[in-house]
Specification:
Largest sheet: none
Strand content: under 5%
Order of helices and strands: HHH
Number of strands: 0
Structural class: mainly alpha
Radius of gyration: 32 Å
Length: 85
């Protein structure tokens, strides 16, 4: 008998939570509102910063490209020497 009132209260709480669950489109609307709020918090880089960062990336790619080419030439020469032996 002592468990029956607790069970009924529990089912009432679960039923009320199910009834209060927002619909699909209202959840999407809430998500889009929160996305808009987060986008307002972003500090976007200036065009000068963007150009500087692009230059750094391009220079780094060029240096790594040269290193890869030099290693390729070195290893191809070593393999050529080993195949001649």
């Amino acid at each position: 008998m002592a468990n029956e009132p607790k069970a009924s209260v529990k089912t009432e709480v679960q039923d009320s939570q199910k009834a209060k669950k927002p619909g699909f489109f209202s959840r999407i609307g809430g998500f889009l509102k929160s996305c808009k709020g987060e986008l307002k918090k972003i500090t976007w880089p200036t065009p000068k910063q963007t150009a500087k960062n692009t230059g750094i990336v391009l220079a780094t790619m060029a240096v790594i490209g040269v290193i890869v080419v030099l290693l390729d030439l070195l290893f191809s020469q070593l393999i050529g020497l080993l195949t001649k032996i």
